Amino acid sequence: MVLGGLFLFCASLLVAVPSICQGACSINPYCSDCANYTEEGQTKWRFYCNPYNEYFIDHSHFTATNDTVDLFQVSSFSPSSTLTINSGAFQNIPNIIRVDIRNTLGSSPSIDWWAFYYGGVENSLRTLLFRNSYLTTVPSVLSYLTALQELDLAGNRITGDPSNYLSYLTSLRSLWLDNNYLLSSIPSSLQRLTYLRKLSLRSCNLNQSSVTSFGNLPSSLEWLDVYNNRLYEIPLGIGLLQNLTYLNMKYCNLNSLSDNVFLNLKKLEILDLSRNPSVVSTLNVLANQKSLRILRLSQISLSLTDIPDAISGMEKLIELDLSYNGIRELNHGQFVKLVQLRKLSLDHNKIASLERMSFQNFGHLEELDLSYNLIHEVTPILFVPQSIKNLNLEGNKFETFDKCTVANLQAYLQNSYISSNLFNCDCRLAWVRKLSASFGSRVSFSGSCYLPRELYGQSLSSYPLDGCTSEDESFESCNIVRTPEASFVNSAQISGIKKDLDIVQTFTTVSVSVAVVALLAFVATIAMLLTCFFKRRNRVPSNGRSRGHVNQGLQLSEAAQGERAPECRSSGDSLYQNTDGTASRGPSADYEPLRNTCGVANNTEAPL
């Protein structure tokens, strides 16, 4: 009974999955493998015909089905013949979505005009890939594929589109023309592709004479790759692409950057200008690219010795690549606004030391690459943001490395790589032997001895530890911080401290301002009171008061006048007789001048 049941079970497997057991595709025997699956209640197929066991593709090869065919892929054919795609080749599988035909082994395929017609294929096909198929011109079959959204003609020998077949692809979103080394200008037919979003022209034959053809690019473009074309200048046509979010101009031999181009690229998020050494003097043009999220300036020039000032205001940057330049130092002030940065590549520069708290503003930084610089010492405080997960310090100039620094860095790092060939192999590095046992594969520490001379070239893991103690080898003496909350000074704490300092500074400024205003008000009040006091004291009484009061304190008695008469007043001591019979030195409202008591004329001295 048991053997009979087992036999029936095996037989049912053979019937259920004949294509797997036989290694062939039941729906197309010329295809080496296929698979079907159910999605949302529909059966879908994928054909993997590598190789295709025939030199042509014909509709008779397929069992007719209305099931959706997600993919028909062929990457190689019989090497003895040229691939031919016959008329109506896919009419028995009309609901085909993606056709991938590549690597036709040195010969251009023969594609019938109606190869993708009949049965409704022309309305269902969304993706057509003819990469590395030795095509010399744009296939004519494209003229009726108006529903096509992605076309890959990369790696061929296409020189252009003289018949404007591309202009019929009115639904096209993505076009790959890269590695067509005979393509020397951008086809004018692209102007009509109003839905085109992505265009790759990598490693073509575009040059300085091709610059004007960039005016053929549709304004709908959001993604443009012209890597490895000798353009020498940024075409003005690129500046008209106001929807552009991605631009790759790496290795284009650019002489300079132009304000006229970048002024209109307000939506640009990803920019690669690597390997253009002559642009180093015009990098400030990028200062207004506030929307950038990824900036790659690798291999610009050894003359780039400082972080470009244009970067300091790019607050949205999440990735910055400045590798393979001549940068010598890091200035914390240049990174103040880059609080969103997640990946920073500074490898292969000439950085010898790191400013204390160099990366304190990078609260989101996850990857930091400082490999192959001239750094000789590292302390944990240099890596303040605990968000860092991957740290690369390979190929630097370390002579030794503090074990507690390594231990504390592992409190929040997922991976770290440290190496040098200048180590002084003594007991300070004895802990390297126990590194793996303590932290597993999360940290890679390697290198060789430079000193003492008798150990030159020996590996860190094998040099003799003569005179070293067990304490030298262990991490027990280190105060290892295990939780991120307790680890060093984190960015949140620094941010809080800065906010507190800002509040204190603001309060102090306001207090000083209030004190100064109060002091000025007090001085003004005192000055006003003194002014009033002296005015009141020196004021001549008015005529409206009693005559006795008006002349109070100013009356001169006859006796006083008599006493002074012998002295003969000077001409300046003229007396005035008031209407009430009294005398005063200053005239009142009613007065009569007195006669000179010395018997001489006024303004004349008495004779001796």
From TrEMBL:
Gene3D superfamilies, sorted: Ribonuclease Inhibitor
Region feature Disordered, mapped onto this chain: 543-608
The keyword Membrane is assigned to this record: yes
Biased composition (Polar residues): 571-582, 599-608
PROSITE patterns given in the database record: LRR
Regions that span the bilayer: 512-534
Endpoints of the signal sequence: 1-23
Entries under SMART domains matching the protein: LRR_BAC, LRR_SD22, LRR_TYP
Pfam family, one: LRR_8
Domain of life according to the entry: Eukaryota
Keyword annotations: Leucine-rich repeat, Membrane, Repeat, Signal, Transmembrane, Transmembrane helix
Record has Kinase as a keyword: no
Protein name according to UniProt: Carboxypeptidase N subunit 2-like
Species this protein is from: Lingula anatina (Brachiopod)
